Amino acid sequence: MLERRYNPITGEWVMISSSRQKRPNLPKDSCPICPGILELPEEYDLVSFENRFPALRKNAPEVENDNDVLIRERSQGICEVVVYTKNHNSELSQMSIKQIEKLINMWSDRTKELSSYDFIKYIFIFENKGKEVGATLPHPHGQLYAFPFLPPRIKLKMESLEKWYTEKNTCAICDIIKEENKKNKRIICETENMIALVPFYARYPYEVHIYPKRHVESIYELSNKEKKEFAYVLKIVTNKYNGLFNMPFPYMMMFFQKPFNIDKSTHFFHFHVEFISPMRGPNLIKWIASVESGTWAFINPIEPEQAAKQLREVEVDI
Amino acid sequence: MQIFSMKYDKNFFEIKENNYMLKFNIQRIPEGFILRGKIKGNPKRVELFRDDVDKVMFINNWQSWGVSKSIDIEDYTLKISEDKKSRLKYSIHIMPELFEKNIISDYFIGKKDKIYGFLTSKIAHPFFEIKDNELIAYLDFFDRKFEDYVDIEPFIYLEGKNIESLLEIYADYVKFENKPKFSKWNPIGWSSWYQYYEKLTWEEILKNLELSKGYNYEVFQIDDSWQKDIGDWVPKDGYPSLKEIANKIREYNYIPGIWLAPFSVSETSDVYKNHKDWLVKDDAGNLKVAYINWKKKIYALDTTHPEVQNYLRKIFLYMRKNGIHYFKIDFLFAGAIPGNRYEKITPIEAYNLGMQIIRKATKGDFLLGCGAPLLPSIGYVDGMRISEDTAPYYNADDINIPYQNAYYALRNVITRYFMNGKWWWNDPDCLSLRIEDTKPNEKIIEMYAYVSGILNNIIFQSDDLSKSIRKDVFFNTLELRGGNSHVKGLMNFNNFFEIEALNTKIGNIKMKVDLEKVEYSIEKDIEYPQINKRTIVREDDKRLFHYYEESDLNA
Fold first, then answer.
1. Which domains does chain A have, with CATH numbers?
2. Which residue of B29, B185, B531, B553 to mutate against A (max A Cβ within 10 Å)?
3. B58 and B151: one domain?
4. Count of domains observed in chain B
């Protein structure tokens, strides 16, 4: 079954994709995205391909919606696996800056291409790294979901950024960047055009956000200089993570860009990246339990200023 | 219930006037507000809004060829001779007398930090008048009577940091309101007009088809000259049948394109001779001249007349059937001139009816509007001329009425940049890239082409391909396309503009252009690894695989 169902209590769409249960258990030591194995029979540099077991599909089956209460819709969208390099034993932190620069161009191109489909409303680029966040394949890769609707947190971001713009005629993230620069307590890495910081309002212990200083709405609007600095900052942040507890650091890396093909202003959306991790100390996990899951209210056990200091002090050599 | 003595019902305030009733509400948006409403009665011209003016205002004319530019309202004059007035007629404005005597801006008007505009033109003609240091927003319903409430054209007020970003936001709201579905394809082609004008022969077409190999055009479009008369859309003597024309163009793998002026009828045409009842008339029942061109009086088809509707439908179906799949439809304003018609509806409604018929008959083909009222055309055309005709000369003068001149055309290409990709694909008019048989120097040729490319406009070339041609400029221009463009400098009087295009085929580009000094510079972004994409479809499950690898820069 592939369809999405509406929850009128929360306004959420839930994607039902029973084929994902059928994902095979691959033989140990066999990587399906290494060149010449299962998915990618030939040599490659970078590749993005449609997921074999997607939650959304371009040619999703039609669904019959014959009920006003139990509402279902077609799961039309696109899910891609984004492979960063052919080198199995690498990761974002270890990749050359040049490979990350090429990866940024691939993310930009995927965004531009997928946003040309009228049915796509949101393009979410992300990476789950480490078994602690459910990643099963160690080969360096991320994913992207091109949604036919705005997911709840994106709606919330849009509403908040719109409200801020309506009240102040400015962008909230532009204002935050100015304020964080003044305070200089939570910045962990900064270049001429990019800033990485533990946000004032961090939900997770070592949450890091990356903001381009110039107001751009999507990844493909970054200039080459900004993209170069973005590559550098991505490498710095992921290396600092690994150096924090001297262990491969699990994280979720999530890109937030403006929605596409909606009948609403989006110019107040500021492209940004959020890194979150379940780690709250060496071998200590912050579990997402009832309060967070049930109310979406987060309790952060580490002061963001302290987390920023720790990350700032991790020396990295790139 | 009543609020401040106004009836309030279902989120609408109600106003009663002698000749109409108006319901309205105001919707807050992040950048300002939208005023929506409904009207009934015989409203004629309704004032909606008033505000102070600034000394410098950005104004816009109703149709493709008219001016979009900033003006000093204390120093604004309309230099227009009586002779010109009698020839141009409705091409300068839907209400020429009003336009000649006042400062009028159609659809929207701007200050350095504000935009006032209308989001649609489906029934009324929306415009602004500057009078006694005030700007006044009007909707003109002509003499239309409404028994039931109809929606008024929504009015929008936007405030922000600069006019350029506000115009882009205005274009977004117009798009949200009209929801146009136009072609995703932004075409490249050849057109006959700016080399051959009305002297094009079939032999010259064959010659240019043969010489066109290597340009990789997508469309080969025959312009004005092929037809028997304006209104008689069949090939004139010396031309083969439409089918043969289309087949010949197809042999070269181009989409066959043709020009016509579907709402226009000349005084010498068979349509005029046989169907005077198909034409728009004045109150006394005399035929109304829409404009004079080709040294002939041109009348306007009454698109509300069932026989005219059938005639329009048949023309386009016939052309399609014979293999024409790209239509440049010109002098469209003729479909929207005020006057008496078969149905008592506004000229804007009549225009909409005509365009609906054409769009339906050409479904899936590319429609390029020209000489067209802007807002009423949204949703019907795939491409739109947003300037007056270019010309083989470039005079940096400053008159405020349509005037064939490369300078005048190029300025509008820049000042109307914000419509591109949101309402349609902007057509900057053809590039003439020959360096013989023309007056503009090579700097002008380059400047016109590169501005059109960086703004990601439609690119059509119009040259006798046997002449000396700056082929390099053509291909460089294509490389500049594909980006998202932003312009700065619209409120300046010096005609100096800065254009930034993000994500073009060759990356991010900045261009500075001085239209008066005829100077430009292009700055490319710093070096960055470029990647090529190769997409393959997996045989077994039809999944797409996009392989990326670094471009070989030495290739």
1. 2-313 (3.30.428.10)
2. B531
3. yes
4. 2
- Burial, A229: exposed, middle or buried (Cβ in 10 Å; 0-12, 13-18, 19+)? buried
User: Are B344 and B219 part of one and the same domain?
Assistant: yes
Cα B517 to its chain centre, rounded Å, is 27
Write out pLDDT tens, residues B164-185: 999 999 999 999 999 999 999 9
The domain of B411 spans: 188-484
Residues of B in contact with A44 (CB under 8 A): 547, 549
Which chain B residues are Cβ-neighbours of A117 within 8 angstroms? none
Radius of gyration of chain B (CA): 24
Catalytic residue among A139, A141, A209, A272: A141
Return the pLDDT at B554: 47
Residue A21: predicted pLDDT: 64
Whether the complex's predicted ipTM is more than 0.90 is answered with: yes
Q: Are residues B210 and B253 in the same domain?
A: yes
Q: Are residues B458 and B409 in the same domain?
A: yes
> For residue B35, what pLDDT is reported?
98
Encode pLDDT of B468-489 as tens digits: 999 999 999 999 999 999 999 9
Catalytic status, residue B464 = no
With an 8 Å Cβ cutoff, the interface of chain B facing chain A consists of 28-31, 159-161, 165, 168-169, 172-173, 175-176, 179, 184, 484, 502-503, 507-508, 525-531, 533, 541-550
Q: Which of B140, B389, B429, B463 is catalytic?
A: B389
Which are the contacts of B159, defined by CB distance < 8 A and separation ≥ 6? A169, B31, B32, B113, B114, B166
Give me the phi and psi of B171, to 5 degrees please: -60, -35
pLDDT tens for residues A79-109? 999 999 999 999 999 999 999 999 999 999 9
State the residue for tokens 């401040």. Answer: B4
Comparing alpha-carbon positions, the chain A residue that sits nearest to B545 is A49
